[in-house]
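Researcher: Let's do a round of design. I'm pasting the structure tokens now; please hold your answer until I've finished.
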């Protein structure tokens, strides 16, 4: 038997199955329902031990009126160590 005839017979054998198939455009066709699954089911819990008062946090951030520039200046001021009371001497004792 020729390969083209086998292909024709196979296509004709599938014809009754295709005739019974339901149209995807038919709104009356029943579809399986999709179960609800929350996106937050697998997220870790208990990372934060407490919550902050949002008003206090907003006021704290609001003290930096010019934004990031003020924060950088504040951090630089915090890093500065106080000058020692007695600066080290470089005197070797020789005149």
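Researcher: That's everything. Go ahead.
Model: Designed sequence:
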């Amino acid at each position: 038997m020729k390969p083209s005839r086998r292909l024709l017979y196979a296509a004709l054998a599938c014809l009754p199955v295709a005739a019974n198939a339901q149209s995807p455009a038919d709104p009356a066709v029943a579809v399986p329902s999709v179960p609800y699954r929350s996106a937050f089911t697998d997220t870790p819990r208990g990372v934060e031990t407490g919550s902050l008062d949002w008003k206090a946090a907003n006021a704290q951030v609001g003290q930096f009126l010019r934004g990031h520039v003020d924060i950088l200046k504040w951090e630089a001021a915090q890093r500065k160590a106080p000058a020692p009371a007695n600066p080290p001497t470089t005197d070797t004792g020789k005149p």
